[in-house]
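Please study the protein below:
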Amino acid sequence: MDLHALIRAEAPLAEQQRALTEPVLAALIDHGVHRLIAPKRYGGAELGLPEWSREIQELSRSDASTGWTAMTTTISSSLAWYLPVDAADEVFSDPRALIAGTAAPLGKAVETDGGYRVTGRWGWGSAVTHASWVIGGTFTPVGPRLAVYPRSDVTIHDTWHSAGLRASSSHEFSLTDAFLPFRRAVRPIGITPGIEGPITVFPYFSFLAAGVASVCLGVARRAIDEIEALAAEKTPQYATTRLAEQTGVQIELALIEARLSSATAFLHDTLSVAWDHAVNGEAAPDAVKARLRLACSFAAGEATDVTQKAFAAGGGSSVFESSALQRCLRDAHVAAQHTVVSRRMLETYSMLKLGLGPDMTRF
């Protein structure tokens, strides 16, 4: 079965069990989705980020939780570029191994012989239940680091009871007094990476924003697909014409298509500009980073609005579990709640344009 057909077929069960199904997980790994932007040394495809964004959009169009899982695990696998080669070999030598986790530095490290002893608890651990290695941002005596722990050190807490992205398994996880060798803790900014490549030049904190925006765009595209199909067959109660023949619906469909296409093009354009800087070995200027983050937040907002309008156009048909429109509605709103695409990002863009000197350290 085609990968996308499989994802769509399995999505209702995944939603019910709050986790991707084993056939979908196996298919994603078989297709190398978890390493789309990882180095070829570890079985990665080394996709450029504009191409990666399109892949995440299409996976999210099939199912948001699957797209979200692909997005977070591919971003996690990008750590293979930054880790010292001996540590990357340890973590990524198995081409089927998933890596997942959370970058927020909520682990507390105490130095010991050869490394640290770490205790911490993290939220938003998308796909950690499927991972062989888990990233937990950790505050060390030399500052915050992305630290990688074997799954055996990690306890997962069943906390992901959510409105949307239910099958992303974004549970909390913790570890207690775990040993972390120095080699598995890295700061992916301002260092000499283990493997050189455009990824390591691209602004690191923009990875996730572009990924979240891509998921949102994919969900909105699915919502338009669904309302177009419904409009062709549904005649509402007390009406004499199908939705497709009603002027109000025709206008709404045209407007949401224009809005989604515009947001998608804006993200692709700004991501391509930033990626071109990385390919040329140049750090992206602040203006380029700010415009990219503007596009990410704009995409998330437009996608949520488009999905809401598609859901509303479906009328009573949209509210049932059998309708993909209700799942799109919930998934889009949950994805767009992520802080990296919040409306606060819009302030930074405007402050930079107006010469007000915003803090760009997390851009």
Q: What stands out?
A: The two ends are 40 Å apart (CA to CA). The first helix runs from residue 3 to 17.
